[in-house]
Amino acid sequence: MGLSVAIVAINEEAILGQTLESVRWADEIVLVDSGSTDRTCDIAREYGAKVLLKAWPGFLLQKSYAFENCAQDWILSLDADEVVSPELAKEIRLAINNPDALNGYWIPRKNLFLGKWIRFGGFYPDPKLRLFRRGRGFMTGAEPHPRIDLKPQFDQRTGRLKNPMVHDAYPTLSSYTAHMNSYSSAGARAAVAKGYRGFSVVDIVLRPMATFVYNYFFRLGFLDGREGLLLHLYHVVYVSHKYAKAWELTRAGSSEKEGS
Hints:
Strand order of the largest sheet: 3-2-1-4-9-6-12
Shape: globular
Largest sheet: 7 strands, mixed
Helix content: 40-55%
Strand content: 15-25%
């Protein structure tokens, strides 16, 4: 059985090479670029990837477009900052060539923060449904973190692979805060679209504090040392910002209505 690797990217030249190197054994690599101004597309072509250009419509639609342009029997969905280890690559090949293969497989994810593997606080094993038969998986859920599900007309049984992919998204504090600023804005828009309204002390203050206590203490996030402390502190800021931005959006909308 053949495998397509689907990736969406913009300005990922610093990290894309290691991702593509880890999957160059695949039968096809499809990369959808949303307007890179660096060497992202050139690097992808150097690895033999099929490069498609599409303006950014959001994660859900961009990844769906990548899936639609995959030609092999199986699809592995990767982010541009995720690496497939040799052990995982071997496991994937065995899974898709198994006559009794299921329609989808969950893959654990090893998240790195400032170069450290975050093992606690809910960040591992962080399983993701990323390997699926073409035409049987689809993107669903809300921005900025949609997910892959199996289409309801197909067998819903899934398997779990043992070896993790490595997610090296946040090598610096600057990269983390930039991502969280973007994600909190997308999350705010999604919350408003679902009907979120008003200024909520519970969501802006108490929910972030409760999240920190739960993840850092009860889920043992403190065992990840200084990196774990910083990660959970800044995650609190992300949660608070999401709901504050949602209030700001509804406040701005109300002001415009009042002024019209």
